Please model this.
Amino acid sequence: MGITSEQIRRVTAELYDRSLRKIPDETRQALERAAETETNPIAKGTLAVMLRSAAEAEKFSHFVCSDSGIPVYFVKIGTRVQFDGPVKQAIVDGFADLVGTINPPMLPHVTNPLTLERGHAGKDMPITTFDLIDDADYIEIICSPKALGSGRWAALEIFTFPTLETIEAYILDVVMRAGPQHCPPVVIGVGIGGTFDYAAKLAKQAMLRPVGETSPEPILAAMEQRLLTKVNSLGFGPMGTGGDTTSMGVHIEYASGHGFTPVAVCFNCWINRRRSARIYNDGRVEYFE
Model:
């Protein structure tokens, strides 16, 4: 028995739909903790509005935000998986199915960068990254739609043999340039090392880590805590209202490389959209955040 195109088509559409209507549980908990400790009254009120908005969206199955983003999937393929039909086309078809059936309708955010024409389909859409999992009999699909606010402020720079202080200074510079325009409190993903393209991939993977989960690498864990403290001391606060809560977490991944060291920084807005599923060879489907 193999994983069918129809399963992939259905699951990818469902993941996108679910990601638009419910924030992850650990993200809600992080917002609740921030609301309890926030010292700025306006920021505290803003966090309360965010939590009420998320609760109402989940209760009535509404979108948490009208910017439904563009489709982005991370697909990890087990080496013992068997496929019964096309995979990439199934993801394309799943998004098309969603566009045709979702209520409320999705705005046409997919944009041709050469003509600025907008619609629901386009070259290389959905954006999909593939990876492998040794000795697994399932595929894992993570859907994390990318909206304008958080997507606009990602950045990457390449250094030569940088110190940790240089890397941290650059990350803070990217955060300061973004200001409150990425809809904070945000999750910040950082990728260090590898090559130009791989650092960006690492940053996206780091961004998808659940809030509150620190790096197992001691140097990175300490860096994450230092940066989170510094970012929250900048005073941008929830949706730019000031206060102590500009970020819910700073997540960092790294890879070995050459003497040149790319550093990529990306953001996920306060909704922190992320839904995942595993499809097994035997047809089972498990959904999780």
